[in-house]
Specification:
The protein has 421 residues and is mostly beta strands. The chain has 3 helices and 20 strands. It has one domain (2-121, 147-173, 209-229, 270-415): Outer membrane protein transport protein (OMPP1/FadL/TodX) (Porin), CATH 2.40.160.60.
Length: 421
């Protein structure tokens, strides 16, 4: 019965996620879209920290963590994100709901584990209007819209070759389609013009991790982590259509396929630079933990020749994250609240995007709860995030967002039928 409920829930979430764009951020126009957080709800609610690993939860960002698994673990997560968008003149709000990940991991030896799954990597979704006056004083309206995204399937392996040292590797296959459209119309002119560009994308990248977790006084653990997500090498097969259409009926009047072969833009390469993460933490196992991570990326080397966006440049990106958890008493019988895991964190991201000469940065506060399911090791995780990205300066848009995460973390003991002899 539990299996049927889980499968139905995941399918329902997947249908809801596929029914709409995964983001409505105007900043998803740049690069290859918004880079999605690849962590589970447990990790996201500790500001996205990668370093922490235990024996019953999956860590999708840190392949070395699979060496700690002692039970088969199943995990799935969904999120609902509400955006408040504002510029210098007006405000509006929108929301999206997504399936964030679907994964399984299991031990294959005493100190080794493996995992695989599916998750989104980037998302594109925006619809913007702008109006200007031409030389004749007529109003010119431009509508910019985009949708799509890149998904990834992954396979991870973690191994502990020596005491307190774990290593791991992940191979990611990325695939998807991005569509960008610009529509322009002029006051009192019967026809408008359109420019539609699509990119079918695929490619691989690899993620390597090293964890060092020595124990002190038989109960305190130091967590040291190095993670390297190698350069994402993507191949983009591009198409572009230009033409005009009737403003009254919406019917195309004359639309042509642009000869991208002549300009060398039919097939282009997108190279998303390597991301390196350094982390350090300390805690008492199954009681409390606090840690911090610094992530950096030479995003200044990124470019997208096919889109050729004029008002953006890329600089080196970096992130600071601080996260923690606390469990009053995980073995408590008398109080359910004592067995709850309480998580919190905060992060600051320099995204590396500079639009209209303004840096686009992000600040977020996270918190959440891990709620035990029965007397086994499975749990449901609730998470919340408050944050702000962007600015209203230089004609840009500021995003204020509130995100709700729900994640299921089940293990093989959850599916065992109890028998009475």
């Amino acid at each position: 019965m539990v299996k049927k409920i889980l499968i139905a829930l995941v399918c329902l979430c997947a249908l809801g996620a596929n029914g709409q764009n995964a983001t409505i951020s105007p900043y998803s126009y740049f690069g290859v879209g918004d880079i999605r957080n690849s962590g589970t709800v447990e990790n996201q609610m500790m500001a996205g920290l990668q370093m922490y690993a235990d024996s019953i939860h999956l860590n999708l960002q840190n392949p070395a963590a699979y060496s700690s698994l002692r039970l088969t673990a199943y995990t799935a997560g969904i999120s609902h994100k509400r955006f408040g968008l504002k510029d210098a003149n007006e405000k509006q709000s929108e929301s999206v709901t997504n399936l964030d990940y679907l994964s399984i991991g299991f031990p294959i030896a005493k100190n080794a584990g493996i995992g695989f799954g599916l998750m989104p990597y980037t998302s594109v979704g925006y619809n913007l209007n702008s109006q200007t006056l031409n030389e004749d004083g007529d109003t010119v309206t431009n509508v910019f819209a985009g949708e799509g995204g890149i998904n990834r399937v992954y396979l991870s392996l973690g191994y502990q070759p020596f005491k307190d040292i774990s290593i791991g590797a992940t191979v990611n296959y990325n695939f998807g389609e991005l569509e960008y459209q610009r529509i322009q119309s002029v006051e009192d002119v019967q026809f408008g013009t359109l420019d539609t560009r699509t990119s079918k994308i695929n490619g691989f990248d690899f993620n390597y991790a090293l964890n060092y977790t020595p124990t002190f006084k038989d109960k305190y653990t130091l967590y040291a982590h190095v993670g390297v997500n190698t350069q994402v090498n993507l191949v983009s097969k591009n198409n572009e259509r230009l033409g005009s259409f009737s403003l009254d009926t919406g019917a195309d009047i004359e639309v042509i396929d642009v000869d991208l072969d002549a300009s060398g833009l039919r097939n282009t390469e997108l190279k998303i630079p390597t991301v390196t993460t350094l982390g350090l933490g300390y805690g008492e196992n199954k009681k409390w933990f606090i840690g911090g991570e610094y992530t950096f990326q030479q995003l200044s080397s990124f470019s997208n020749d096919f889109l050729q966006v004029q008002n953006v440049e890329y600089t080196d990106a970096s992130s600071f994250a601080l996260g923690s958890y606390f469990i009053p008493d995980y073995r408590s019988i008398s109080s359910y609240f004592n067995r709850i895991t309480y998580r919190a964190g905060l992060r600051y991201d320099k995204t590396g995007m500079v639009v209209n000469n303004e840096e686009i940065n992000n600040f977020g506060i996270t918190f959440g709860f891990g709620l035990p399911l029965g007397s086994n090791f499975s749990n449901i995780n609730l998470g919340f995030e408050l944050g702000k990205r962007g600015t209203t300066d230089a004609g840009l848009i500021e995003e204020n967002y509130f995100k709700i995460n729900v994640g299921l973390s089940l293990n093989d003991k959850w599916f065992i039928k109890r028998k009475i002899n």
